[in-house]
Amino acid sequence: MRPHPIPLCSIPIQKMPGKTMPNLHRRALLGAPLAMATTRALAQSQPVRVGVLTDMTGVYADAIGPGSFLAAQMAAEDAGHSVIGRPIEILSADNQNKADIGSAIARQWYDRDKVGMIVGLDNSSVALAVEQVARERNGIAVAIAVGTNDFTGKFCTENAMSWNYDSYCLTHGVAKSLVARGLDTWFFLTVDYAFGAALESDASDAVRAAGGKVLGSVRHPLNAGDYSSYLIAAKASGAKVVALANGGGDMTGALKQAAEFGLQQGGQTLVPMLCLNTDIHALGLPVAQGITLMTSFTWNRNEKTKAWSKRFFDRHHAMPSMDQAATYSATRHYLQAVAAAGTTDTKAVVAKMRAIPVNDFYAEGKIRADGRLVHDMYLVRVKTPAESKSDWDFEQILQTVPGDQAFRPLAEAGCPLGKT
User: Fold this and answer.
1) What is the extent of the structural domain holding 155?
2) Model's pTM, two decimal places?
């Protein structure tokens, strides 16, 4: 299947006057210095391009999808539509949650379209594949919603960064807190690919480290649709906690069916390892109330988050998820780094991205040697319908977890870059 990127550009390409390609070839024959100067001039007339590569139509589309494209557009607009005298262009494509499609699009963007940074990468297998393409093609890859720790671990590269969460930060705080409250036996319902395996592994480690026990697990395919047999196994385990190591439509579908099977009425606590406000909206508070989870962003945390979220809502007609807010942050930071470097040269821009602290409505933090943006995370509880004061008022912050405690220590990351 041939991938077909969708150029949904908010800012049109501005064509600059200049020589045609035949004249360029003729100049190359007449003299190398003149040809090199012409090539540089053409490069400087090209847009600064960012590619949003994500799930546009599948299981994660509500959480990141078209809303992440809008967030990147907003970052370009807030940069003034141009940087270093060149227009900004935002591209978008659907990776269809397939690593081969994602990597093919990435190669085309880096090679043909001269995209400087690819952002999104909401599927772990896609993210790992694109990370290696970025290394080969000397591009920048920023994962917004990658679960596997390997992205900034054993497969880390100088040009790759992780902006939002990973399986370590999503699982450890929740597991420690619940085991301490006596919820010390766990059973996992896990999506069968790298993301789910990473969530289950990290949560299991955290449960055992806190003195709890893991009684078992079952695996389901991505976008399974029917979770009844898996939930029957979870109910039969007698575990106090049924942890959902999945996300998107898989997580919401499993929670809805769990309510039908009466898991909560039978005394079991449902803990989704990844649950966003878009998921809660889809579920409704009567089903989602009481869920405890980790997040990097709540839209009404302070005045800055409220102001940006209102702008986003006015155009998207839904409050931003943490993935969409993080996409804005990463895109804006890239454009600031380009401005500071005065060039789109990858090495120079990466150096500026790593040197300049991130300080915006989404997060305050700095990019570590392994590419991990270290920032605060928030342990939240989903409100009851009576506690919610307005539409999209879903989450109550129970605890702020500082970045140096939320994320895996650099010494344990397994990234060779962290050892230099």
Assistant:
1) 21-167+302-375
2) 0.84
